[in-house]
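User: Show me an example of a complex going from sequences to structure tokens.

Assistant: Sure. Here are the input components:
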Amino acid sequence: MEFNAVYVLVAREFKKFVRERSRLVSAIARPLIWLFLVGAGMSRLVSPTGGVSYTQFIFPGILGMTILFSSIFSSISIIWDKEFGFFKEILAAPVSRLSIVIGKGLSGTVVSTIQAAIVLLLFPVLGLKLGLVQIIAVLIIAIAVSFCISTFGILLATFYENYESFSVIMNFIVMPMFFLSGAMYPVKLLPKPLALATKLNPLTYGVDAFKNVIFPAEEGPMSADFSLATDMTVILILSFAFVVIAARLFERKK
Amino acid sequence: MPIIKVENLVKRYGSLTAVDGISFEVEEGTIFGFLGPNGAGKTTTINVLCTLISATSGKAFINGHDCEKEPSTVRKSIGIVFQDTTLDKDLTAYENLLFHAYLYGVKKSEIKTRVHDALNFVDLYDRRDDLVKKYSGGMKRRLEVARGLIHRPRVLFLDEPTLGLDPQSRANLWGVITEMPKKHNVTIFMTTHYMEEAEVCDKIAIIDSGKIIAEGSPDELKKIIGGDVISLKTRDNKWSQKEIKKLFNIDAEDKEGELYLTSNKGDACIPELIRGLGDMVLSVKLQRPTINDVFLKLTGKAIRDEDVSGMSNIKEEVRAYRRRH
């Protein structure tokens, strides 16, 4: 693996992220909208039995959503790069395909983790109490989840050649991934087919890991659905699989 | 040892044979021109040499390294300027070159000087902090040439480098390209379908429908046409015709009031003609054969007449093939 290539791919993404103010603004506005417009409204309808309010309940899901959108967006910029030719510059370089996948994966990880950290700052506003250990744990999980979703996004990007496919990915992959991640409702309350779909979604385990750390004492319907160990194992195994498959798919064309 | 060596290269996409058993060699430090109409197999050949695609059969070597078996070594020793721009338009010119330098693993202590030198070489240093999307077509192409040189390649591939540029930008880019072999110690491999550009090449290979149909220096290829054409206007064509036959044993053709004759050394022939014919001569014109004439003679079609739809058909077929596999 070439670290120079990994470094420069991440540096490029970071530079563009800082330069594009609109991307940053919308990245921060989206979670706010969900938390305070959807969450606040829904909490009038849903009154959980445990100690967690609905707005608090969706907070881990909103962290997951922030990561989902920014990671996928970062990774499928590969489709833009293909369309505008820049990807050829990367593919023609004396750099292993693995380095390209890791570099792009870490690019998404850096920008997603930054955004998740900004959203995390909202926890006192929602009446949540998090200790330093919990905050650090949330950030570590954010890094792992961001990498997993970013590499999944790279895998998606290998199947598409032009940016018309962007709306297809957003509507038929990203939005269902968000709704079927346990972000808005507990997985244990879902009907069987939906629960199964949710369990096949990598983001579910990320959101669940956040729930495990943010509501450690919660029992009852709003609690986490799996153990933290399960969540992290699934995320790491999936990340590894996505990296290997994506690197394979980037191999030379026939 | 030749810097590029291609042996019996074949590339098939399903039933379409894009490259059909070509062989050639390129000597170090020269400018090699790969000429042919659109869809002849030029870009496919470049893609094999640049290790972007695998050949169906045959071999290709760059600097002694097998393009199929040692892609990484080959990639380090080549620079590529693709037909379509491959710059990141949302980064500045400087950042684009920096990206390239890191990507190719240039030593950290050298990166800055190399990027500065490259920008100076193509005369873009003053515009280095502009976003590339603000650049004109000619500037982008020059920047790509500069980028291709950053990692000090042995061979620089230029795929239709002047396509779509205005005459001034073309001339400007030509200045840059012809300077490169000496200044940067690099061999140039370029494709073009602009005939007049091929004249500056040291060696040319003409490719048509995947096969090399002629190879040699521009002068050698022009000999295929049979020499230069001299056209004369005289006071008395009949008398001059007879005189030319008598003096040089050449049959001059009388076409629409002008006499045409061909000669291997047109420039040396003119003074003799004038000496022989004296003040009968009103005007003399020397026409040198162009590569286009060569192409016309070999294939029966002018290279520029080739319509673009032919190319897009082939590109479409290649894409469809890739989707299936």
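The lines above are the inputs; the final block is the predicted structure for all two components together. Chain B is about 40% helix and 25% strand.
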